[in-house]
Model the fold of this input.
Amino acid sequence: MDATEVAAVLARARLGDSEAFRTLVERHSRRAFQLAYRMTGNEQDAEDVVQESFIRAYRQLSRFEARAHFSTWLHRIVANCSVDLIRSRRARYDHTSTDDLGPVDQPEADVPNPERLAASAQIERKVAAAMSELSPLERAAFTLRHYEGRSIAEIGRTLGLGTSATKHSVFRAVRKLRAALEPLRGES
Amino acid sequence: MSRHYSEEDLILYYYEERPRSAGIQQHLDSCGQCAAVYRDLVATLKLVATPEAPDRGDQYGLEVWQRIRHQLPEQEMPWWSAWFRADRLALAGAFTVLLLAAFVAGRWWSATNAPAPTVASVAAPAPSPAAANDESRQRILLTSVADHLDRSERVLTDFMNAPAGGDLSAEQRWAEDLVVTSRLYRQDAVQSGEASVALVLDELERSLLEIVHTPSRATAARLDEIRRRIDAASLLFKVRVLGNELRQREDPQGSRPRALATQTS
Done:
């Protein structure tokens, strides 16, 4: 689909044409899911975020400026929906304590073997547990910076934060992760 | 040796968010303490690998569409486009006819009841037709919104008192009718500069939409969830107070009985 076609689809969607909006949903769902999954760390939560994001996008299409990229605008909505969802569900999750996970053996060999795969899975679990200890904003800012490679300025615009607040969210996230993952580093 | 760099500086350096990073690199080459902190930081961040999202096939977009298509809300339309829709045009036509009728009736009433003009009244500047039209429009809006708020209050009250597991379809149909009207009044209120009225109507519209989109036999938990939101926003209170205020503005002399004065709170 070229730029002219995209603009035409967007214009029709903004006038309430649900078929045009369907084209946008079909085109952007996978990327939205990927971001939502990284932001929430949970498949079912990511599904909920994707749905809520498109519903929110549809409602607010009149606010979308035609000059901007729809994907950028949707990215912002997905990120904020994820923050909202993490906030609302945070209390319902039992946070896995990282204290009960001891040092991990990390075999040196490059070829994956059962021990190495087990260690890798354990690292993933510990990282997931450490990420779940972050506040919703810390997690969002860190995810956008570390996984998505967004700049501090972009993250600030996405989350509606100032540059300083964005930086400090990333700093706090890194500090907490360093503390939580200390035992892993000791063994690596 | 220059000063040591803080952890925050090193984090920004790692993410290439720091200007003049060559200076840091030089420092790290010569300062063992900072280099150790940086190595530790890098080791941690390397552990945090990008999680691989479960694969979603080519049909995923279609699946998402199927899940949301029946949940799509009304779009927030720009005010100008709203008037180009057929139902809006019909309403605008009716509104114009009403205005004309009010204008003609006003002229006829003035002609038959006005006392003989005095010097002072002749000298006084008469309000322009545009100003008179604006005033009439404002009064009609206030009356209509006040009536709308009365109706909405009744729906909200019914919903708040509905038993769990009971059939909500009657309230939902009523709410659905009110959503459309609410949106029109909100747009009118925005155009007329009635920001506080528009704000309450916006909140009301969202709650009405939520009622419309709730299953007609909602679970107690779902009902509680919506009711808590309505309570938290003090929506019933706001609707009642605004309705009361509009009635007072509409009839400042209190010559007409006030609808809300008879209601119990």
